[in-house]
Amino acid sequence: MRTGYTLNGRYRIIRSLGEGGMANVYLAHDLILDRDVSVKLLRLDLRDDPGTVRRFQREALAATELVNDNIVQVYDVGEENGMQYLVMEYVEGTDLKAYIKKHFPIAYQEVIQIMEQILSAVKTAHEHNIIHRDLKPQNILIDENRVAKITDFGIAVALSEHSLTQTNTVLGSVHYLSPEQARGGMATKQSDIYSLGIILYELLTGTVPFEGETAVSIALKHFQSEIPSVRDIDPRIPQALENVVLKATSKRPADRYTDVASMADDLATSLSPKRAGELRFTPAENDDGETKVLPASALSAAAVPHAIAKPVGEESAEAATKDATAADDQSTGKKKRKKYRHPRRRKFLIAGGIVFLVILGIFIGVALFRPQMTNVPNVIGDQETTARSALVSAKLKVGTVHKTSSDKVKIHRVARTEPRSGTQLKQNTVVDLWISTGPKRYKLDDYQGDSYASTAAKLEA
């Protein structure tokens, strides 16, 4: 969007503030209320999905109800020419990611003060049943007075279904992704608490707990690997403070804090001398829910019917009969069991083995004949030769190379691809390239002697 453009006849664009995985952000001036605002335009590829647009509008409207000093306030939600936009409070400062990089190491007391502000904001959202789903330092702004403000409550949900297919987006978010989200499960309030624990980890150590070459490799570590100890990086960190990190980032949601208020209360006393001798937090052991095979003896015992009470005389007679036949049963018992029980068990085992082999064959067949998939790499801004190499490395074919004008991409560099970057395709699929020829140029006619109105109309056209 160009500088000077007036969105909806009210918000005049001043300059671009940045481009993210989900939206382009602009500084604008509200002509009616005479104040600077931040305008976010939903990313182009997300605008094409009607379901995403509806979710974006619904969640953005819900975010307007969140009133908290630590939440970036949403002023307006609208659409113009198919562009979905949010008008938000403009915060002068930086995001928490850049703040950590610039000021690390940060004093423990300041870490707690920053986290308390973040927890206050998330608590307000959770009280309105709004889950952020994408909490990370990049979505937390720090103004000139060191006040933390969370943003993107409206956009996070619109992106949630696209994150694992959008490489540029997920690489920023996956470092803070809860194990249940990494598995593809539904995000809950405990998912936000997990992300808050990772943010606290980064405030204390200056780094994230898990790194990897791909988003998938990092996601796997979130639900397979134990979180590294912050005290191994900085032994001065009190055990009580590390315990807040460990409890918030437990693999199972049930082992985490029940709510944000509980985490805030625990964090507030983590530097207290009264907690100096605290033991390291370990999650309670619990059944992991896996199916378990019962031993045959347990099944047999479960199948025995309850004994029926008998009169004393009948009971004595039955006991005498049992005593009389005990020797015979002992000598023939093994043979009887072999004759009647073992063949049936053997049939069950054979049938079970056949079923297992059939299922195994089906899985192998599906694996062999399933098409191999790959993602279109992000080559926007790359030279044509570099882009071709990246596509070949991703096992894709280069199709037609087109020329297109662009005021954003330098000349002789890739302006766009079709299909777009991040799209999942079968291997060896053709991808077309559009190479920038630079800004579009126009040759002016000679308007000398023409009227102002007709000349203005021609220029605007």
Summarize the structure.
This protein has helices at 44-47, 50-63, 96-103, 108-127, 153-160, 167-173, 179-182, 189-205, 215-224, 230-233, 239-248, 260-268, 296-303, 312-340, 342-369, 384-393, 452-460, and strands at residues 6-7, 11-19, 23-30, 35-42, 74-80, 83-89, 93-95, 140-143, 148-150, 373-375, 397-404, 414-418, 424-426, 430-436.
Features:
17% strand, Transferase(Phosphotransferase), domain 1, 43% helix, single chain, 2 domains, Trypsin Inhibitor V, Chain A, alpha+beta, 461 residues, 3-stranded antiparallel β-sheet
Structural commentary:
The chain has two domains: 6-275, Orthogonal Bundle (Transferase(Phosphotransferase), domain 1), CATH 1.10.510.10; 373-436, Trypsin Inhibitor V, Chain A (2-Layer Sandwich). Strands 1-2-3-4-6-5 form a six-stranded antiparallel beta sheet. Strands 7-8-9 form a three-stranded antiparallel beta sheet. Strands 11-14-12 form a three-stranded mixed beta sheet, with helices on one face. The model is unreliable at 156-172 and 287-340 (pLDDT under 50). It has 17 helices and 14 strands. A hairpin with a 3-residue loop joins strand 1 and strand 2 (11-19). It is globular and about 100 Å long. By secondary structure, it is an alpha+beta fold.
